[in-house]
Specification:
Elements: E1 2-6, H1 10-18, E2 24-26, H2 29-35, H3 39-49, E3 54-57, H4 63-74, E4 80-85, H5 88-99, E5 103-109, H6 112-120, E6 125-128, H7 130-134, H8 140-153, E7 159-162, H9 168-177, E8 181-184, H10 186-191, H11 196-212
Parallel strand pairs: 1-2, 1-8, 2-3, 3-4, 4-5, 5-6, 6-7, 7-8
Helix pairs in contact: 1-3, 4-5, 6-8, 8-9
Bound molecules: SN-glycerol-3-phosphate.
SN-glycerol-3-phosphate is lined by residues 6, 26, 28, 127, 129, 131-132, 163-164, 166, 183.
Length: 217
C-alpha cells in the first residue's frame, strides 16, 4: 500500500520524505488555508520535495472553470494530480483531464455508486472519506470494502486512495482490505511505529548491553 501524507505543511512533508516513508501528498482547500500560504507557492515547494503524485484541488464547481483551474494547477509541476469533487461537473472534468493525460483524484466520495462513476470517468485515484462516515455512525471501512469488490469485479484501473484517515486502525484496515493508497496525517503516520513493548524491549536490551561494558567498533 502506498502512503501519501495528507497535509500542506512543508516541514511535515520534508521530515517524512527524509524517512523514505511517503509516496505522495494530498492537499485540499482546507489544508491550504491551514498552511497560511499561497496555493501555487506551497504546492510548487511540495512538488519539489516529493517525487510522487501531489494532489492539488480545483475550487470551481462548473466544468469550464474546473478545466481552466485544473490546467493551471497542472502547470505547477509534472507530478501534479488534479483533485476534483465528486459531482457531475467534476466527473466530466475528470474524464476530459484524464483524456488529456493528466492524473486525476476524485474526492469527497461517500458511496460505492459514486466510486463506480469515478472509475467510469477514468479517475486515476478515488478518495473515499472514512473518518467523515465514522463521524455520522456509518462504518467508513465498509465503503472501502465495497469499492474494492466493485473495482475488482470489473478490473477498473482507478486506485483506491483511502482518505479522511484518523487512526492507525484505519490504516491497518485499509491495508487489510487492499486499498492501493492511504493518505494519512503526518502524526498518524508517525504513530504507526509506536508500540509499548517495542519501547520496553529496547530499554531492556540497552540496559543489559550497558552491563556488558562492551562497545561495538
Ligand atoms: O484527504 C481528505 C482529508 O484531508 C479529510 O480529512 O479528517 O477533514 O475528514 P478530515
Amino acid at each position: 500500500m502506498k502512503f501519501f501524507v495528507d497535509t500542506a505543511n512543508v516541514s511535515e512533508i520534508r521530515e517524512l520524505n527524509d524517512l523514505g516513508l511517503i509516496d505522495g501528498v494530498t492537499t485540499n482547500p482546507s489544508l491550504i488555508l491551514k498552511s497560511g500560504r499561497d496555493i501555487t507557492e506551497v504546492t510548487a515547494e511540495i512538488c519539489s520535495i516529493v517525487e510522487g503524485p501531489v494532489s492539488a484541488e480545483v475550487t470551481a464547481t462548473d466544468f469550464e472553470t474546473m478545466m481552466r483551474e485544473g490546467r493551471t494547477l497542472a502547470k505547477i509541476a509534472d507530478n501534479i494530480c488534479i483533485k476534483l469533487p465528486l459531482t457531475l461537473d467534476g466527473l466530466k472534468a475528470c474524464r476530459a483531464l484524464t483524456g488529456d493525460g493528466f492524473k486525476t483524484n476524485v474526492t469527497l466520495c461517500f458511496s460505492a455508486n459514486q466510486a463506480l462513476l469515478a472509475a467510469k470517468a477514468g479517475a486515476t485515484f478515488i478518495s473515499p472519506f472514512i473518518g467523515r462516515l465514522d463521524d455520522i455512525a456509518i462504518d467508513g471501512m465498509d465503503l472501502i470494502r465495497e469499492i474494492r469488490q466493485i473495482y475488482d469485479n470489473y478490473d477498473f484501473r482507478t486506485e483506491i486512495l483511502a482518505a479522511s484517515i484518523r487512526t492507525v486502525n484505519h490504516v491497518k484496515e485499509a491495508a487489510l482490505i487492499g486499498a492501493d493508497v492511504a493518505t494519512v496525517p503526518a502524526a498518524t503516520i508517525k504513530a504507526l511505529v509506536k508500540h509499548p513493548l517495542t519501547d520496553k524491549g529496547l530499554d531492556q536490551f540497552l540496559a543489559d548491553w550497558a552491563k556488558t561494558g562492551q562497545t561495538i567498533g
